[in-house]
Design goal:
One of its GO terms (molecular function) is ATP binding. This is Molybdenum ABC transporter ATP-binding protein. It holds the Pfam family TOBE. Keywords: ATP-binding, Cell inner membrane, Cell membrane, Membrane, Molybdenum, Nucleotide-binding, Translocase, Transport. The protein is α+β, with helices and mostly antiparallel strands and about 375 residues long. It is built from eight helices and 22 strands. The chain folds into two domains: about 220 residues, Rossmann fold; about 140 residues, OB fold (Dihydrolipoamide Acetyltransferase, E2P). The strands form four sheets. It has a six-stranded mixed β-sheet with strand order 7-8-9-3-10-11, sandwiched between helices. A six-stranded antiparallel β-sheet has the order 14-13-12-15-21-22. Strands 2-1-4-5-6 form a five-stranded antiparallel β-sheet, covered by helices on one side. Helix 2 packs parallel to helix 4 and helix 4 packs parallel to helix 5.
């Protein structure tokens, strides 16, 4: 099932003009504050009526201004997960979930209560009221409630933003299971690169009310022309897998034809994962460094040089592991003679990994092995 969105809307001084398709899986609307993410998801939900546009799930049209068609929110068959859980405080967890099941009976069969309870690990919470739940537990119940309403589409508006890092790590595996095990597309709003890298199958990068790029996390974060998260957020995403766990505590990863070494990767050999390498954590050298302790050094060549308005530049480097980005000064660009085609070596200082399986560990930052 594919969600097709085409919207134009003016709100004060802000102009929204977007068009994209979200295929099956988990599609993230990604961008900085004010880029239009929440406006888009509220329009899809029917909480905002765009001035013009069309929204459809395959051949089921939610709105079409050309045909003067607009379905109100309660007829769109959506599950909405907000930043706050918005559970009924006077209901138990079981009653909150059964309330959602009432909508499923009206609209057709949905997920069974027992399967959702098992998937989210909330069986021991069923008789509690929301006041006795942690933030992470409340969000798990909110996910279950959205799923039990038999939705044709699940919307999630920055559902982890109100949680601390420990609770985010607790919740992300459940969104992975939702993505991998439920045949319902998910439209997910986030400005966190770590969430996007771990959860997204498709990324729609928004800038100033426009679609800057649509693609996989690797395609979007590896594009130096759009800077989807600002200078500090620019970075490459590599698809990798664990090939060995060595006796000295290091894990060896295969990324393309290259090898990377990290400590603390609690995944068995053969497991896939994504490696995110921020541009400011990549140094460049014209010669392969000798007599240094860094283990993660990749050979490649410069693909493109993007000069910023200030003293900085973003260098795109093609390596045997895939495309990397490096944030350097324009003075360094001139001193090293960096231009397309120049051979160089990328020295990686820090990496972040995100498992891709439903039961993987949280996105974790690692210092490069030295």
């Amino acid at each position: 099932m594919t969600l097709s969105v085409s919207l134009t809307h003016r709100l004060g001084q802000f102009d929204l003009d977007v068009s994209f398709e979200a295929p099956a899986g988990l599609t993230v609307l990604f961008g900085q504050s004010g880029s239009g993410k929440t406006t888009v998801i509220n329009a899809v939900a029917g909480l905002l009526k765009a001035q013009a546009g069309r929204i459809a799930l395959d051949d089921w049209v939610l709105e079409d201004s050309a045909q003067r068609l607009w379905l109100p929110p309660h007829r769109r068959k959506l599950g909405y997960i907000f930043q706050e859980s918005r559970l009924f405080p006077h209901f138990t967890v079981r009653q909150n979930l059964r309330y959602a099941s009432w909508f499923a009976r009206r609209d057709g069969p949905g997920e069974s209560l027992s399967r959702v309870v098992e998937m989210l690990g909330i069986g021991h919470l069923l008789d509690r009221r929301p006041a006795l739940l942690s933030g992470g537990e409340k969000q798990r119940v909110a996910i279950g409630r959205a799923l039990l309403a038999a939705p044709r589409l699940i919307l999630a508006d920055e559902p982890l933003a109100a949680l601390d890092e420990a609770r985010k790590a607790e919740i992300m595996p459940y969104f992975e299971r939702l993505r991998d095990e439920v045949a319902v597309p998910i439209l997910y709003v986030s400005h966190s690169p770590a969430e996007v890298v771990r959860l997204a199958t498709t990324v729609v990068a928004l800038q100033n009310g426009r679609v800057a790029r649509v693609g996989s996390p690797a395609e979007v974060f590896g594009d130096p022309t759009i800077a989807p998260a600002g200078v500090r957020g620019i970075g490459a995403v590599l698809e990798a897998r664990v090939v060995a766990r060595h006796a000295d505590g290091l894990s060896e990863l295969a990324a393309g034809a290259a090898r990377l070494f990290l400590a603390g990767v609690d995944l068995a050999p053969g497991k896939p994962l994504r490696v995110r390498i921020a541009a400011h954590d990549v140094m460049l050298s014209l010669q392969r460094p000798e007599g240094v302790s860094a283990l993660n050094i990749l050979s490649g060549h410069v693909e493109a040089v993007r000069l910023g308005d200030g003293p900085a530049a973003i260098i795109s480097v093609q390596t045997s592991a895939g495309r990397l980005l490096s944030h350097v000064t324009q003075r360094s660009v001139a001193a090293l003679g960096l231009k397309p085609g120049v051979a160089c070596h990328a020295i990686i200082k820090t990496l972040a990994i995100a498992s891709r399986g439903g039961n993987g560990t949280a996105t974790t930052q690692f210092q490069a092995m030295t």
